[in-house]
Amino acid sequence: MTSDGSTTGQEMPARLAALQTSVLKPISQTEARSVAADLKAMAKAEPQLQPLLDAAPALRDFLVAAFSLSPYLRDIAVAHPPLLWRAIDQPLGPLVESAIAEARESWRGADLSDTVLMERLRRAKRTTAFALALHDLARLTDARSSAQLLSRFAAAATSATIDHLLVGAHRSGKIRLGDEDHPSEGSGVIVLGMGKLGAGELNYSSDIDLVVFYEPDALGFADLLDASDIFARLLRRLVRILQERTGDGYVFRTDLRLRPDPGATPLAIPVEAALIYYEGRGQNWERAAYIKAQPVAGDLEAGERFLKALRPFVFRKYLDYAAIADIHSIKRQIHAHKGHGEIAVKGHNVKLGRGGIREIEFFVQTQQLIAGGRSAALRGRETEAMLAALAEAGWIDARTRDELTQAYWFLRDVEHRIQMVRDEQSHTLPTAEAELKRIALMSGFADTRTFGDSLSAAMRTVERRYVQLFEREAELSSELGNLVFTGQKDDPDTLETIRGLGFERPQDIARVMRTWHNGRYRATQSVEARERLTELTPRLLTVFGESRRADEALLRFDAFLAKLPAGIQLFSLLGNNPALLSLIVTIMSAAPRLADIIAAKPHVFDGMLDRRVLNEMPERDDLAGRLDDFLSTARHYEDRLDRLRIFASEQRFLIGIRLLTGVIDGPATGRALTDLAEIVVAATFRAVRHEIAAAHGEIARGRVALVAMGKAGSRELTAGSDIDLILIYDHDGDAADSDGPRPLDAARYHARLTQRLIAALSAPTAEGVLYEVDMRLRPSGNKGPVATRLPAFVKYQREDAWTWEHMALTRARPIAGDADMMQRTAEAIQAVIAEPSDAETVRKDVREMRALVEQEKPPENAWDLKLVPGGLVDIEFAAQTMFLLASAEGQALPTSGLSTMEVLEQLGPGVLPDSDLTLLRQALALMTDLSQIIRLCIDGPFDPHQAPAGLIERLCRAGDVPDIKVLEGELRRLTKAVRRIFLALVAGRGSESARS
């Protein structure tokens, strides 16, 4: 065996001898005798054959069996004995590579005619097909390798034909080429291989699907109006050159019907017109087709540019679960047209029939359509590789991957055998027993029974996996009872069914259901949406009925539907993922704010398809990688900003779901929301800097650091938090103006950079606002410049800043910018807060500031956990006071940007009695949990008398108490104690009591 996996001439008979003659049996003894006579005649015509056949009986037996089973191969061998000798004597790899190279260069020659090109291509195709078939039947190669080599040959033959046609058009003056020796380069002629050709998976007698586009300006047409007619003539010649049968056979049957609207468009279409079509009218089946599209001929660079421009059409920004129904409808049409509703053996179509190859391809492609926009790893062309990628990404399990991969290549192997018999583009097994036996023997089985058993098992495996994805039938009312919502009056049996499901007000529920099914909401106006909702209704009522206060939860879902702009995506998602319904119930019963988010942006629910969501939090690096994947298909700056908003809103939603379901607690939620904000803000900052550089250039040796303040700095963001930022910059000496087309001085340059960043983060787009930004913590607040040079920042902090500004610095943390500048800024901040200050002044200023906050922002009620006396502000102020007092007393300081809990843990033991410190930490943990849940679930103040029942239950579970009254009592106890500890600390009594 050579390094490329092929066999040498000496190895082939040796391998066949090792395999024994049972590797392949003739169809009958009569046929075997006839083929043996033919072999003698071939040996006379090609003398080198006879000694080899005499020395290797296994080889003779194999050839007798192969040619008796395949009349097509027998005819080639009889007509071309030297080709038989080459196929036996030469290694497969070099032999086919030589044929591919021969095909690719076959267009060269002065004034080459179509006829000569056709002869050359057919000769090379005959060599490739014959050698591959013999090695495949001998099991010295496999369907996977054969498909790849056939695809490469098809691309070479197509490329040669295109080059030949372009040179001819150039010499006749119809077009103008840049380089006649390399006609396709820079020509703007795009030839895409679709389907199996694009994926490198051609079957043995496959036709090839091509789509042709062109860039009108690249070919120098004398009159662009003639372009369409010129291409029409060229492509008709291409089809004739490749597929017309001559005495040498044919190359490939060629199909151009996958182009846009083939009944009404020319054979080749300008690129711009094609992009307009796909963006405005492209169908889901076309999206599926373009998953495998690959430039195979013509201007390959132009082809890659076209596919990159088309990528957002194929792989959507949102998870596209509604596409499943569309793709499955195509499959149902194929079943109806071909009549293959059941798995069989005789007469079964292994490609289009139930349990066949197409079901595996649809299984893979629909999930690629759904998730490929988010994950670059799911945008590949090959079926086997994408099954592996789906398993790696958690969309399928390893067993599904292995079963479908094994079934795919088994069925492809059978497909090859069907086509090797007579070189027919057929995928249908014979109905006659004798012909079915031929396929069984070619596939290595002893008889049709064992072949049929293996084939049926493979197709049943495919069918089972396919059904799990596509054919979830509605779990309907035969088990539940009547569910009828037509007419104006309630059906008594339906009311009884609804009551039995757990609802207390069945008439109200029936009225709601009629509203949905009558299409009175935008979400239920389309026929498709109502069809999906009808299928979903029994399961939906069952799951809502199992919840506490089922009526309240369903009515909240009704209010949610009333605001939903469209319903088909959500209904399709829930219909294909019934387990997600229980999460919807949780959201509707506990979190109206999340329900509003889904109503406004249904795509945020897409992330729930990842099975790992409720088991783990993604690592920060993993999250950053996902964002990079998602941004990789952005076409321009605005698209990048929209994608950042989509990613952030989805991930914020998923973090909220984890909090709501108890996977993570309040502090973990704060860290997760902050990590997300940092990743997204950093990506936005990079995009903004790129835009600014394009317009204004760069400041020589300029450096910037973006610093997070407040809860963003201490990693304690809540749902809906704005982010406090300041921008610090520096440069060497007196910097000159920026070096771009519209230069700016350093101060204006960085002010413009900051303003663009604020706009990028907070300006509303079609996808909403990314983050509200607060920059009031910069030097001099709103009166100061929006960007500050580092020396000026340090000078201000040392000479002019108030105590509250130094308190804010204890939470400051650089999160984006140039690494060296981020480090310098962090060191400067640490140096400022480490400078000793007067302890009494610090305590006095903190007392006054807390009093001012209470005066200007009094708490809404006792549940305003941030502002209530003894609440989170008191705990945060206590931690920041400890920070400044530590520097006043010359203690070693922790780094800035720690969470409040981390500051208490590091500085508290030297300042507070153990009991007080324990109580502060206990209060902080509980209030953080409760405030994170409240901010997640509702907007505005929390009132336990108005709050949803599910939210009350969730808060009680977080507080580990039986009811809300007990929780309120616990909060009163903790806030009273926190207030006492805070007042003692700022009065100077905390450290004394700690030492005592």
Task: Please sum up the structure shown.
This protein has 996 residues and is mainly α. Helix content is 60%, strand content 5%.
Rg (C-alpha, Å)? 36 Å
CATH class of the domain at 91-314: Alpha Beta
- Characterize the biggest β-sheet: 5 strands, mixed
Count of DSSP-assigned helices: 43
Count of extended strands: 10
Low-pLDDT stretches:
1-10, 16-22, 336-340, 471-478, 991-996
Helix content: 55-70%
Shape: elongated
Q: Could you please say which CATH topology of the domain at 91-314 applies here? A: Beta Polymerase, domain 2
Q: Could you characterize what this model shows?
A:
The chain contains 43 helices and 10 strands. The termini are far apart. Helices cover 60% and strands 5% of the residues. The strands form 2 sheets. Strands 1, 2, 3, 4 and 5 form a 5-stranded mixed sheet that branches. Strands 6, 7, 8, 9 and 10 form a 5-stranded mixed sheet that branches. Helix 4 (57-69) crosses helix 5 (71-79), helix 8 (114-137) packs antiparallel against helix 9 and helix 31 crosses helix 33. Among the domains are: 91-314, Beta Polymerase, domain 2, CATH 3.30.460; 347-470, Nucleotidyltransferases  domain 2 (Four Helix Bundle (Hemerythrin (Met), subunit A), Up-down Bundle), CATH 1.20.120.330; 472-590, no CATH class; 836-996, Nucleotidyltransferases  domain 2 (Four Helix Bundle (Hemerythrin (Met), subunit A), Up-down Bundle), CATH 1.20.120.330. With 996 residues, the protein is mainly alpha-helical.
